[in-house]
Specification:
By secondary structure, the protein is an alpha+beta fold. The chain has 27 helices and 19 strands. The protein starts with 21 loop residues before the first strand and ends in a 9-residue tail after the last helix.
């Protein structure tokens, strides 16, 4: 048997999954970018693990030009597919993507992948650029070398924008053609210096019209005297005649009717009423009401004056051109034109009129044959310039790619640490969404975000369960709005209208004023004292209201008393004249009212004494009762604060600013204490003097200390802590009291 060779099969092995590393922070797993391979294989990372899914290209502290290069669809937002595409694009052109972790704006040509077609083209273009800049031996290209490529391209004759300006060519004939195109077809600005020029569409449209006019001229043979009795000038004569032909026919027809019957002359000329209506309005010699009048006064002579004031003012120029170009060359110079002469002119120009109907209706039709031929002779040269300029666009695109590569090498890792993960924020390195630092109310707030619409932003940002202060910031005529998160310290003295200072990421200082406040607790400790502060605030407000009311009543009484004093003499005189009335009895105290007040006060006192007695009867449970009272008052506030602090997150604040936050991004108490730092005396410092303006309470503190000491003594007595130190009569223990009772004598 013949042995059958074994069949060899090639197994295609799938690439091994990439091994990522994560860190747990902010309540979410966030990826760490350790190597260039992490960046190159970002597309393999599940988007559910991305911190953000979209961010705006404006309003954040990041290079806007870099974001525009990443934003492929130019919608002003960056999304995961665009970030992944940018990572893959830059890694495909580098030999080792690890250089991206350095964040440098200096591109070493050796870092480009010469084995890749795209990388090889970039190397060639980079060397060409360095050659133009006079640095042929340089092995590096900086962002500064290429960022100002506008001036570089402007210095070149061809910049790749497909626009030919008069300065592009050194040929006067071509320059004249470019100028004519701009006059008839408009212009388009050059890419860099905004110099007006012409593009391919305008050039092609112009030469199409010129060629059509030249083809028509080819049919009008200047040597054919039947067709062109005047040669080339016959075209000008025909044009001038065509403009006035309808009006001349109308005039001579009116004259024929007037010659037939003299009585028709008045009707064929404008009536006085027509002139009255014409004179009632503002006169314009080119207006239709005047142009509609006959060419000249209608008479039976059938003769049209060619010069003078008897010609309709609206047609003076056209009749003069007709006389110079048609009448004089064909009939000779004259001042009047008879109807027979007009018919002779039409007969001589009749063969050309049918050809004139076929004449192209464009801007080139009015040009002479010599001008058309001159323009056509520059066509090839002008299209050659256009071709050379469009060919330079390839180099321009490569320059854009070089700029994009250098910018991504510098900024891509920063974007990833503020988009895929929030490493920059949680390590407090300055996230791109942080606008700066706000100093206000004795603390600094680092979590500040630029806001476009305060009212719209507050609706969603309020879900962050964070105390937010919206501020309008002004500086040297500039204005912007921010929102600052107060995540530590009390909020008792935060209110609309309070001023502070805001420092942006560039270190510039702005005047900041609170315009809107969203209150939320900053800590559980603050929530503990909140009910008591509110209670004291309510009492102060009520006392102030009552004091104000009493003051107003007192002022009214004094005013009335002063009025009586100043008018006492008038009152006495009036009383003397008035009839006697019964004397008014002085007001008396209502005994019932006094008794009612006494009963009420007695009842209140009895209730307070009963409550105090029950409280004292608790004995050793008094501390527990005190703790219970405090818990009943502060407990709900502390519970609400604890729940809100657990829900406090960064997401709604950024979502309201145009981001799409994928995780919850919690801001716990510890992180909040770092984002909003309160004022503290620096370590090692000491106070060298007491405050000379401190409040002096006098005996108030002493009285409070005495009351507290007495309360402690009563508590100790009720708890039997002092029985072994007090006389038997003052001891509280029942056993001690019983031992003091004398037993009765036994009965005999």
């Amino acid at each position: 048997m013949r042995a059958v060779p074994p069949t060899t099969t090639t197994a295609t092995t799938a690439p091994a999954p990439h091994r990522w590393q994560f860190i747990r922070v902010g309540g979410a797993d966030q990826v760490i970018f350790r190597t260039g391979e992490d960046i190159a294989r970002l597309g393999e990372l599940d988007q559910k693990l991305w911190v953000a899914l979209a961010c705006p290209t404006r309003g954040i502290d990041f290079d806007a030009r870099t974001l525009d290069l990443i934003d492929a669809d130019r919608d002003g937002r960056v999304r995961p597919p665009e970030v992944v595409a940018a990572c893959e694009w830059v890694c495909a052109r580098l030999r080792n993507p690890d250089v991206l972790l350095q964040g440098s704006d200096v591109l070493a040509l050796d870092d480009l992948d010469a084995g890749n077609a795209d990388g090889a083209r970039l190397i060639e273009e980079a060397r060409r650029l360095l050659q133009i800049q006079g640095k042929p031996d340089s092995a590096t290209l900086t962002l500064a070398d290429i960022a100002d490529r506008g001036e570089l391209l402007s210095a070149m004759r061809f910049n790749g924008d497909g626009v030919i300006t008069p300065a592009t060519t050194q040929d006067d004939a071509v320059r004249a053609t470019v100028a004519q195109i701009m006059r008839t077809h408009g212009s388009v600005p050059d890419r860099h210096k905004q110099t007006p020029g012409v593009d391919r569409a305008r050039i092609e449209a112009f030469f199409a019209q010129v060629q059509a006019a030249r083809d028509w001229h080819a049919k009008a043979d200047a040597n054919d005297r039947t067709l062109m009795p005047l040669g080339e000038p016959t075209l000008a004569a025909a044009d001038a005649t065509r403009k006035v032909q309808a009006k001349l026919d109308d005039y001579f027809a009116r004259c024929r009717v007037a010659a037939f019957d003299v009585q028709a002359v008045a009707a064929l000329n404008p009536s006085p009423e027509a002139y009255d209506a014409l004179g009632a309005n503002k006169l314009d010699l080119s207006a239709d009401p005047i142009a509609d009048l006959p060419l000249a006064p209608v008479t039976p002579r059938c003769v049209l004056p060619l010069h003078g004031n008897r010609i309709n003012p609206a047609w003076t120029e056209d009749i003069a051109a007709f006389a110079d170009r048609a009448v004089t060359p064909l009939l000779g110079a004259r001042d009047e034109l008879a109807e027979t002469e007009w018919l002779a002119i039409k007969q001589q120009l009749a063969p050309l009129q049918s050809l004139m109907a076929q004449r192209p209706d464009n801007a080139a039709a009015s040009l002479s044959l010599a001008q058309l031929d001159a323009f056509l002779q520059t066509r090839e040269a002008l299209f050659a310039l256009l071709h050379d300029d469009e060919a330079a666009e390839t180099h321009n695109n490569l320059l854009v790619d070089l700029e994009k590569l250098i910018r991504l090498q510098r900024d891509l890792v920063v974007l990833l640490n503020n988009f895929v993960s929030f490493k920059a924020f949680y390590r407090r390195e300055g996230a791109i969404f942080q606008a700066g630092t706000l100093y206000l109310d004795g603390r600094s707030c680092e979590l500040t975000v630029q806001v476009q619409d305060t009212a719209k932003h507050a609706v969603l940002a309020g879900l962050a369960k964070t105390c937010l202060a919206y501020c309008d910031c002004t500086r040297q005529g500039q204005k912007m709005s921010i929102v600052a998160a107060f995540t530590a310290g009390d909020i008792d003295f935060l209110f609309v209208g309070r001023n502070g200072v805001f420092y942006d990421r560039q270190g510039r200082d702005w005047d900041a004023t609170i315009t809107k406040l969203i209150e939320n607790p900053t800590s559980v400790a603050q929530a503990f004292f909140a009910p008591y502060k509110k209670f004291v605030r309510v009492i102060e407000e009520q006392v102030a209201k009552r004091a104000a009311a009493s003051e107003a009543a007192g002022q009214g009484t004094l005013t009335g008393f002063a009025t009586k004093l100043t008018t006492a003499d008038q009152t006495a005189a009036g009383a003397a004249k008035a009839p006697a009335t019964a004397p008014r009895t002085a007001g008396r105290v209502d005994v019932g009212t006094v008794a009612a007040i006494g009963v009420a006060l007695g009842s209140i006192s009895a209730v307070l004494v009963a409550i105090f007695g029950k409280f004292i009867d608790l004995g050793q449970w008094i501390p527990v009762a005190l703790v219970g009272i405090v818990a009943a008052i502060s407990g709900p506030s502390m519970l609400i604060a604890w729940l809100k602090l657990r829900q406090r997150s960064l997401g709604p604040i950024l979502d309201a600013s145009g981001w799409a936050i994928n995780g919850r991004m919690k801001v716990n108490v510890r992180l909040g204490g770092m984002l909003s730092q309160t004022a503290h005396v620096p370590p090692g410092a000491r106070r060298v003097a007491r405050d000379p303006y401190r409040e002096r309470h006098g005996t108030t503190g002493f009285a409070a200390a005495v009351v507290l000491a007495l309360a402690l003594v009563v508590l100790a007595w009720r708890m039997d802590w002092l029985d072994n130190r007090l006389p038997a009569a003052l001891q509280h223990s029942p056993t001690a009291a019983a031992s003091q009772v004398t037993p009765p004598a036994p009965a005999s």
